[in-house]
Amino acid sequence: MRRHVFVIAMLVALPSGGIRQGGAQTSSDAPGAGSARKSLADRNDRRLFQRFVEDAAIVPGGWIEGVFTYDNQADNAQRYFLGGQFAFRLGENAEAGLRLGFVRQEFDGADDGSGIADIDVYGKYRFGGPCAAGGIIKIPSGDEGEGIGTGQLDVEGFFACRADLASVSLVGNAGLRYNGKPDPPLPDSEASVLLGGGLLIPAGTKTTFVIEATWESERLSGAGNDARLTLGYSGAGPGPGFGFRAAVALPLSDAAPDYQVFVGAAWLY
After folding, report:
1. Is residue 251 part of a domain?
2. Could you tell me which residues come within 8 angstroms of residue 164 by beta carbon, excluding any fewer than 6 positions away?
3. The whole model's pTM is what?
């Protein structure tokens, strides 16, 4: 696997430089107790990249984001996605939303495909403490003939927890996904297991640095497990207002893309 020494060094160095104990603030960033409490309350607008949904955070109002992703895949294949990511608060402890868009898949030595991507619809509920549970339904709007979907319904259930400390938010998630069996010539599907964790490090009123590790067992037989380390910057939140987000994902397994680029522009209200 590639760049693992660099990845591990980044993972160790960034938290140690960015995380401070609550009582070790400098004179330039020493807010009062009221400001500290407000900062913790504002963390719901500071979100993950790969597991935006599978998180215990509940958006305070609404989140509308235009998203572009580029995947540099194995065997010189490339995938482009352009679409929208939407989240809406439902009552005190619930959130619902969806993700949709247009995707183009380019293959080396085979016909390229493009069209409407699969649509993800989700909902989640946060319990009285720092944890939440929810589910995602994948609507198979992507055309399997174009190589941009399996043509089958997928269902995922997940559980997530978050600890918002003085200088960092610790997040963790786990899930189980049923992947519908596609028609030949695609291989048989497998039920996949998801695990993830990360650090969200506030560095200003809206600025957050994100370190996120994700793993998912194979969805299709022989496809391999997908493990990634995502390093990102977010200028979105707390709302209301506009914010920019960007990240790069590096492979931690052979089945993951060689790299992935994420760019988003979000409006929070």
Report:
1. yes
2. 40, 43, 130
3. 0.84
